[in-house]
Write a structure and sequence with these properties.
60% of the residues lie in helices and 0% in strands. By secondary structure, it is an all-alpha fold.
Length: 137
């Protein structure tokens, strides 16, 4: 509901569809946040890294740079989800993960390629991913 949810927000064709997508997206984020709080481990489901962690990371590492702005995922700041932020930083700090995160390429790809969402192809002034991660540590 999160990986697909950001796209449902971004490509909604009317206000009602967008509001439903946003509600569902943030409900799913809250569910993950609560799951992490209850499990008290380093990962979504506790002490072991699972596919759930691996599949969710690409969406949440792009959140501030892409999804919150371009896809209008704005109901809440991701920083309001304390456990998710700690989890995201922990994955980012795993060996060589940072080398797979190309924030400048993401910005070019998303802001330039998705013409209907950004017809003037303007890339907003945004912090770098390293700056975002530094603030979280």
């Amino acid at each position: 509901h999160i990986n697909d949810g950001v796209y449902r927000c971004g490509f909604a064709r009317n206000q009602s569809s967008y509001e439903i997508a946003s509600k569902n997206l943030f409900a799913a984020l809250k569910e993950v946040e609560n799951t992490m709080r209850q499990n008290k481990g380093d990962w979504i489901f506790g002490e072991e890294l699972t596919y759930a962690d691996i599949y969710l990371f690409p969406t949440l590492i792009r959140w501030e740079l892409i999804y919150s702005k371009l896809f209008k995922c704005t109901k809440q700041e991701l920083s309001n989800f304390e456990n998710i932020i700690k989890w995201r930083l922990k994955i980012f700090q795993l060996s060589n993960i940072d080398k797979t995160c190309h924030d400048n390429e993401w910005k070019k790809d998303y802001y330039k390629a998705l013409f209907p969402l950004n017809p003037n192809q303007i890339i907003p002034v945004l912090p770098s991913l390293k700056e975002i991660m530094r603030l979280e540590s």
